[in-house]
Amino acid sequence: MKKCVIAPDSFKGSMTSIEVCQIIKQKVAEFFPGCQTVCLPIADGGEGTVDCFLQAMQGEKIMVPVHGPHMEDITGFYGRFQDTAIIEMAAASGLPLAERHLNPSVTTTYGVGELMLHAIQHGAKQIILGIGGSCTNDAGCGCAAALGAKFYHGAQTFLPTGKNLGQITKIDLSELKSLLNGVSVLTMCDVTNPLYGPNGAAVVYAPQKGATPEMVKLLNEQLIQFDHILQTQLGYSVAALPGAGAAGGFGAGAVAFLQAKLQSGIDTVLELTKFEKQIQFADLVITGEGKLDQQSLQGKVISGIAKRTFPYHIPTVAIVGDIGEDIASIYQMGISAVFSINQVAIPFSESKKRSKQDLARTTENILRFLKVFH
């Protein structure tokens, strides 16, 4: 084997995608010493997205003083790749930053906007936003405010959060639009939730961010009012747009305020890293994630990788934690074989402690078998 491309997602709760790459790369070098390995760790837009891009592409990590989810002073960061900036929402409004005071009715995305502002002021013409792992429910109003948007309640400007979105009486986007002139914004979004309702931002995601049942009801009502305000002030609604409810309604705000395009995370990553060029002359592609199930078949990492390797007839192996039911169609998509790293029948709370060694052993067994034919 002369060339192997390694492009896994993280194994949630046990290994980052960078760690998975390193383990597999080490085993490939052990069994095929002359093999060229290309590592492309995949992130879904949440915590670790910037680091994954920095592993796959030449760029630099920029540290920036910004405001955190409770408007406290923190240091955020983003990745700069020529005139493109990769920003993960979690760097300024992530759940771990608010874990001692979880309250999505008051947290803000203001720091995310500050990261964008810094990137634009330093020459970024394309902003790619990863919006996973947020602790907010402000529909992106904080981000927009940091970029120059003004939200009024009567004659006074204020910073809307989840609890008072419905108090907005006027929106002025003139300064924001001037700033974003000539700048494109792409948002990595892998969920299809609408802005509000039973499958909306508040009902589905706010409880994970610390919302009580009463707070969930309040947040949902505020998002409904916010949509009515958008219709009145901007002349359109984005509430039913697939992904509008992502990251506490940031999906809706990204489209309404930033004129952003919502695109699947895997498509964004593979396009930006020029994946199809990377797999040229590859003898094998190894991908993987924590669990292969029906959701994996709907535009997640493994199916996204398979879609691009299939036309080139490149053998593509998926190494995963669990294997769900009814995943046979993954083979028609282009996956050659699927292997679970689970060596013994034990609960995840125990198996995650040995996931790295189990991944190494599973990879070794695959490579031992391939070695027979080389």
TrEMBL record:
InterPro entries, sorted: Glyc_kinase_flavodox-like_fold (IPR018193), Glycerate_kinase (IPR004381), Glycerate_kinase_RE-like (IPR018197), Glycerate_kinase_sf (IPR036129)
Example of a GO MF term: kinase activity
A Pfam family hit: Gly_kinase
Alphabetical keyword list: Kinase, Transferase
SUPFAM superfamilies, per database record: Glycerate kinase I (SSF110738)
Family: Belongs to the glycerate kinase type-1 family.
UniProt-recorded name of the protein: Glycerate kinase
Organism encoding this protein: Clostridium facile
